[in-house]
Amino acid sequence: MTDRFDILIVGAGHGGAQAAIALRQRKFAGSIAIVGEEPELPYERPPLSKEYLAGDKPFERLLVRPPAFWEERDVTMLAGRRVVAVDPDARTVACADGSTLGYGTLIWAAGAHARGLPCAGNDATGIHSIRTRADVDRLVTELSTTDRVVVVGGGYIGLEAAAVLTKLGKQVTVVEALDRVLARVAGEPLSRFYEAEHRARGVALRLASSVEGIDQADGRVTGVRLADGERLPAQMVIVGIGIVPAVEPLLAAGARGGNGVAVDAHCRTSLPHVFAIGDCALHANPFADGLPIRLESVQNAHDMAATAVRTILGDPAPYHAVPWFWSNQYDLKLQTVGLSAGHDQVVTRGDPATRSFSLIYLREGRVVALDCVNATRDYVKGRALVTAGATIDPARLADTTTPLKALLTTAGSE
Ligand code: FAD
Fold it and tell me: Which atom of ligand 1 lies at the shortest distance from residue 131's CA?
């Protein structure tokens, strides 16, 4: 017999959990189930490369809601089940365990899987990703026998892991293919600031370097070989080179997409009664000049969940949320708002040497994004500037004697 739910959510992560929460908040009375391949109830992923890796936060404190919450809200949790196929005509999904689930509406919130190292030796023991709780638990069991770690990828997750492991006393080398860390997401001054911070704490950086292969003995990692011939000894390799959206069953069922599944401004896929939200959703983002992008952030997962739920419940409003993100490394709290891609000018507000400053990104004179390091006030007010698409004289933006709040009232906007 096929269990059938009015709303079936695939993926028990940030987006999936938030969709169920929002449905019940809006008094949806039909049946809801969340099917997820991980064995856990929905939990927060950001601490995996921060407090959870450091051992500073137990897993129970990562849970999005306590177990009783889901029971009280009558949300059926189908944990440990992977969906492998979607039949949009029959409105069913097939799971890897052979079971079939029916739906009235499907919300695909399956996120992504970590991209693996595309080189020889990538199957050796001691190579880890940081995407799930299980990944981190596995990694942590090896830490007591690990002195040297190579982190492949100088993005947020790689740098956060490098910061934690350095604090735990490990000798860490970060290998980054581009010529600066965070190149995909931030301007050069921010990259150089973080590079200096990591180096000051003993992290070695290999920029513009690529991994040629993994050395191993008896199936265990012993080192990493770089394309220039250098060999970095290591007992552990952490791979942080991006993600692959988990959308194969949807694409196989005929949904439009490629790098993710394409959704419209209401998070509808091209399949009837099928929505997609979060990391896997390729959408035209108003803060990226309408270009099709995927955002990988808690904000995006939560706000898309709200958008899909509104549409399902007959109260549609197009997705128009300001992107924001954060990263914690050492005692540095980075908060970012807006999207800096495509900027043509960067204003530095404050002195990076004080370790409290902001970068303000402009495109054709408009404020499009801020990266704020230990500068929460700038972040809060900067958000309003990004939302308004404000046009402000760069010299005034750089002047720390004028609060951003004051600039907002005098700004021109679109
Ligand atoms: P997820 O939360 O990944 O949930 C998807 C779930 O679906 C997963 O449990 C997955 O296993 C499951 N699934 C996949 N395929 C299937 C299938 N076929 N069948 C059933 N289940 C399936 N964002 C921030 O904003 N700030 C941060 O500081 C930050 N730090 C991060 C640190 C780490 C280590 C990681 C990994 C991510 C971080 N992120 C951060 C990103 C953020 O966690 C993601 O953007 C967010 O989790 C996306 O939510 P989602 O619901 O789309 O996917």
Answer: 36
